From TrEMBL:
Cofactor: Mg(2+)
InterPro entries associated with the record: dITP/XTP_pyrophosphatase, ITPase-like_fam, RdgB/HAM1
Residues engaged in binding substrate: T134, R135, N136, E137, G138, K139, S197, F280, G281, Y282, D283, K303, H308, R309
Protein keywords: Hydrolase, Magnesium, Metal-binding, Nucleotide metabolism, Nucleotide-binding
Function: Pyrophosphatase that catalyzes the hydrolysis of nucleoside triphosphates to their monophosphate derivatives, with a high preference for the non-canonical purine nucleotides XTP (xanthosine triphosphate), dITP (deoxyinosine triphosphate) and ITP. Seems to function as a house-cleaning enzyme that removes non-canonical purine nucleotides from the nucleotide pool, thus preventing their incorporation into DNA/RNA and avoiding chromosomal lesions.
Superkingdom assignment: Bacteria
PANTHER family hit by this protein: INOSINE TRIPHOSPHATE PYROPHOSPHATASE, INOSINE TRIPHOSPHATE PYROPHOSPHATASE/HAM1 PROTEIN
This protein's name: dITP/XTP pyrophosphatase
Manner of cofactor binding, per the entry note: Binds 1 Mg(2+) ion per subunit.
Length: 326
C-alpha cells in the first residue's frame, strides 16, 4: 500500500490524506454533519473500487469551504491508487461522481436542488416506471396508488397506443399473464405487470377458467356469460356442489430478470340467480365464502379486502421490493 501523502491547500480549504486500511474523513472546526455526509457517500461506492487490500482513505480536513473541492480531493486519491477515471462535476447545484457513462453518486447540498433545474428536459420522465398491461384506467389507478409508496411511476397500455395486442393463447392463468408481461417487457425494455384472472367452477372441471371473459362465445358479455354458467349448472341442485373460486395470477417481468409470479384464490359458490348491483363479470352469481352475500353486493372497499385480486396484490407488495433489488 502506498505511503504517499496527499495535500490540497488554498485560502479556504486545506485537506491532507493518505491511503490506509479504512475509510475516514475527519475534521477540526468543520461542520461534522457535512463531513459525515461526504464520508457516507464514499462508503457507498468504495466496495466497487478495485484497490489493493487493505483499502481505504484517511483524510484530515483542516479548513473547509467547498464540498466540490473536498470531493475532488478524495476522488483524485482514489484515481491515483486504483487507476480509475472517476470525474467530479457540478450540475444544477449538486455534485456528480461519474465514471464514463455510469453515475456513481450524487452529493446534494442542504435543502436539495430544484428538480426543474436538475432535469430540465424530462421532468415527467424522472424515476423508474412500471407498465401495467391493461387499458383499464380503474385498474391502473389502483396500481398507481400501491406502487407510489415504493417510488414508482405507473403507466398503462394507453400510453403506448402502437404496441401490438398480445394474444392470450395460454391454457393456464400463469401462461397468459406471462405472455402479456414478458412480451411487452421484451418489446419496450420496461418493467411490466400483467394479470390474468377468472372463475373456476369445480363441478365443471375448473371451467370457465382462462376462458372466463369469453365463456359464452366471441360476442360474450357479462350477462351472457352468467346465463351460460347458470345453464351449465342447472342440474346441480345442492349448493355445496356448486363450489367455485375466483383466481388471480400476477406476473411482473423485466429485462434480464426472472419473472415474479404471485397467485391468490377467493373461494365461494355459484348462486342459483343473480343478486347485487356492484362489481362486474360473474360477481352477481358468486356467493362469497360461507356467507350468503353475493360479490355484487359488496362495495369496492369490501371487495378489495376479500377478492382474489386484492389478495394477490397484497402478496405482490410483500415480495416485490426484495425481487426488484435482485
Amino acid at each position: 500500500m502506498s505511503e504517499k501523502i496527499y495535500e490540497y491547500k488554498d485560502e479556504d480549504n486545506w485537506f491532507i490524506g493518505k491511503m490506509t486500511g479504512h475509510n475516514m474523513v475527519s475534521g477540526w472546526g468543520v461542520d461534522q454533519a457535512i463531513i459525515k455526509k461526504i464520508d457516507d457517500l464514499f462508503d457507498g461506492i468504495s466496495a466497487e473500487l478495485d484497490w489493493e487490500k487493505p483499502k481505504g482513505y484517511d483524510v484530515s480536513v483542516l479548513r473547509y469551504q467547498s464540498p466540490f473541492l473536498l470531493l475532488s480531493f478524495i476522488v483524485d486519491m482514489i484515481n491515483q491508487e486504483t487507476e480509475r477515471d472517476i470525474k467530479v462535476e457540478h450540475h444544477a447545484g449538486a455534485v456528480l461522481l461519474r465514471e464514463e457513462e455510469k453515475l456513481l453518486a450524487v452529493y446534494l447540498p442542504d435543502g436539495g436542488v430544484s428538480m426543474a433545474a436538475f432535469f430540465p428536459d424530462n421532468r415527467e420522465g424522472i424515476g423508474e416506471t412500471i407498465l401495467i398491461a391493461t387499458r383499464n384506467e380503474g385498474k391502473t389507478k389502483e396500481f398507481r396508488h400501491l406502487f407510489a409508496d415504493l417510488g414508482y411511476r405507473v403507466e398503462n397500455l394507453n400510453d403506448y397506443p402502437d404496441l401490438p395486442e398480445v394474444a392470450e393463447t395460454g391454457v393456464t392463468f400463469e401462461e397468459n399473464a406471462r405472455l402479456k408481461a414478458e412480451t411487452i417487457s421484451r418489446i419496450t425494455g420496461k418493467m411490466v405487470l400483467a394479470d390474468d384472472s377468472g372463475l373456476k367452477v369445480d363441478a365443471l372441471g375448473g371451467l370457465p377458467g382462462v376462458w372466463s371473459a369469453r365463456f359464452s362465445g366471441p360476442d360474450a358479455t357479462d350477462d351472457r356469460n352468467n346465463a351460460k354458467l347458470l345453464h351449465e349448472l342447472a342440474m346441480v341442485f345442492d349448493q355445496k356442489d356448486r363450489s367455485a373460486q375466483f383466481h388471480s395470477t400476477l406476473v411482473v417481468a423485466a429485462p434480464d430478470k426472472e419473472s415474479l409470479v404471485v397467485e391468490a384464490d377467493w373461494p365461494g359458490y355459484i348462486a342459483f340467480q343473480p343478486k347485487g348491483d356492484h362489481g362486474f363479470g360473474y360477481d352477481p352469481i358468486f356467493i362469497v365464502g360461507e356467507t350468503s352475500r353475493h360479490a355484487a353486493e359488496l362495495d369496492a372497499e369490501e371487495k378489495n379486502q376479500l377478492s382474489h385480486r386484492g389478495q394477490a396484490v397484497r402478496k405482490l407488495m410483500e415480495v416485490f421490493p426484495s425481487w426488484q433489488t435482485k
